[in-house]
Specification:
By secondary structure, this protein is of the alpha+beta class. 37% of the residues lie in helices and 19% in strands. It has 6 helices and 10 strands. The protein has helices at 19-42, 53-86, 104-130, 252-265, 267-270, 282-294, and strands at 152-159, 162-167, 173-175, 179-181, 185-192, 197-201, 206-210, 216-221, 226-232, 244-250. It has a 5-stranded mixed β-sheet with strand order 3-2-1-5-8. Helix 1 (19-42) packs antiparallel against helix 2 and helix 2 (53-86) runs antiparallel to helix 3. The longest helix is centred in the first third of the chain and has 34 residues, at 53-86. The chain is elongated. The termini are far apart. The structure holds copper (II) ion (CU). Residues 158, 161, 197, 232, 234, 236, 240, 243 line the site of copper (II) ion.
Length: 313
């Protein structure tokens, strides 16, 4: 309602209310309630959980972003609702209202709030990549954010349509079982021997692309024992959707027993594998597979598919 158009003002000529404060108060109440609910009730259930250092840092990040975003969304809803109710068209009111130009206070507030939100997100995002050693993402062959001290190295080898894992600190054996200890930094070396895949260990909050000829390093430290779902997260061909397996996180003692036992059990097969390297030549691997099939070594060890098209009879 235009203040300079008293002729069309409603009977009684009410003074214009303070719209700003009438929008601000419900916005403030709803925002505080929403943020407390997000942090306390919803937050602990947000993906990917808190099984590892990288997972819990991602959960924290999502909580912070949700708490920062909710007041923005609520402001839009409150403003729309207020406009629909207070500024709606009324019978007999044909006036359009005055055009708004050059409200310095609104402009300055808008630019300041937007700038603060964007800059804060930039600083927060950078800190949250550096502090949790890459936050579970693949950092390439020369990671700049590394944990200090000893790490357990686990190589993830992707191929259509399977993941295998090599443990270079235990003689370099290769297995389809992903077993990891709690309480120790794990250093994944992710690579592929055919097309582009992506190693996604959901509960660990670890996701790293698996490219042929590339050694992609990602770190995490596991907090609790449990099951780990591993999925390929890059469309890699016909059976991409079936490219998953389940790993487990166990106590350090149980891991040691498993790793040392598997090293002995697979020793005869490990000898036939290419020596441990950060990447492998796919053509050599195919020849190895052929040799292993000829020697009757696949199936039992379950290490490689025969190098044939599984769709051909
Ligand atoms: Cu894949």
């Amino acid at each position: 309602m235009a203040a300079d158009a008293p002729a069309s003002a409603p009977a009684g000529g009410r003074a214009e209310p303070n719209h700003g404060i009438r929008i601000f108060i419900p916005w403030l109440i709803l925002s505080v309630v929403a943020d407390v609910l997000i942090w306390v009730v919803w937050g602990p259930h947000l993906p990917p959980g808190d099984m590892s250092s990288s997972a819990s840092s991602q959960q924290f990040d999502i909580k912070v972003l949700a708490v920062a975003g909710a007041p923005v969304a609520i402001f839009v809803w409150v403003y729309f609702s207020y406009a629909l109710i207070v500024w709606r068209h009324r019978a007999g009111d044909d006036e359009d209202g005055p055009a708004i130009h050059g409200n310095t206070r609104v402009q300055a507030t808008w630019i300041t709030v937007s700038s603060v939100i964007v800059l804060a997100a930039f600083v927060f995002g950078t800190v949250q990549l550096v502090v949790p050693q890459g936050a579970g993402a693949g950092e390439g062959a020369q990671p700049i954010w590394k944990p200090s001290g000893n790490t357990l190295q686990v190589q993830v080898i992707a191929q259509q349509w399977k993941f295998t894992y090599r443990y270079p600190q235990f003689g370099g054996f290769e297995t389809t079982d992903l077993v990891l200890p709690v309480g120790e930094w794990v250093e994944f070396h992710v690579t592929s021997i055919d097309v582009i895949h992506s190693f996604w260990a959901y509960q660990l909050g670890v996701k790293a692309d698996a490219n042929p000829g590339v050694d992609n390093v990602a770190y995490t430290k596991i907090n609790n024992t449990g099951t780990i779902t591993v999925r390929c997260d890059e469309l890699c061909g016909l059976w991409h959707g079936a490219m998953y397996n389940f790993g487990k996180a166990v106590s350090p003692a149980a891991f040691d027993t498993w790793a040392k036992g598997t090293e002995v059990k697979l020793a005869s097969v490990t000898k036939m594998l290419p020596p441990y390297a950060t990447t492998y030549d796919p053509t050599m691997v195919a020849q190895m597979s052929k040799a292993m099939v000829a020697a009757g070594l696949t199936g039992g060890a379950g290490l490689y598919y025969p190098p044939t098209d599984p769709l051909q009879p």
